[in-house]
Design brief:
Blueprint lengths: L5 E5 H31 L11 H24 L6 E5 H6 L8
Antiparallel strand pairs: 1-2
Length: 101
């Protein structure tokens, strides 16, 4: 008997998913960095405004950079030609749900 949701995924599929998320987060970080550059070019500096859009964008960029680094690291350490059994927590962690929702 299997309790809960368990999904068997081969290493190639898992690596592709993780690389996809790494690329996504890397691209999002670059997007945020461009927005920061645009605001600074327009004269907005961190801490100048009450809502401080530059600092918020910097935090978002950093979060995406960190996620991208983690996913790139994970992708490089997937054991080839193996099968992984993933539970709901694993699927959430590798952001598989975000592909469909």
């Amino acid at each position: 008997m299997i309790e809960g949701l368990k999904i068997k995924v081969n290493s190639a599929e898992l690596k592709a998913q993780i690389e996809s998320r790494a690329t996504y987060h890397s691209e999002r970080a670059k997007w945020y960095e461009r927005q920061i550059g645009n605001l600074r070019a327009g004269g907005v500096l961190p801490g100048e405004l009450t809502s401080d859009p530059v600092s918020r964008l910097e935090r978002s960029a950093k979060e995406h950079q960190e996620k991208a680094a983690l996913f790139f690291f994970m992708a490089e350490h997937i054991i080839p030609n193996e099968e992984y059994i993933l539970d709901e927590g694993d699927l959430s962690f590798i952001e598989l749900y975000s592909r469909y929702f």
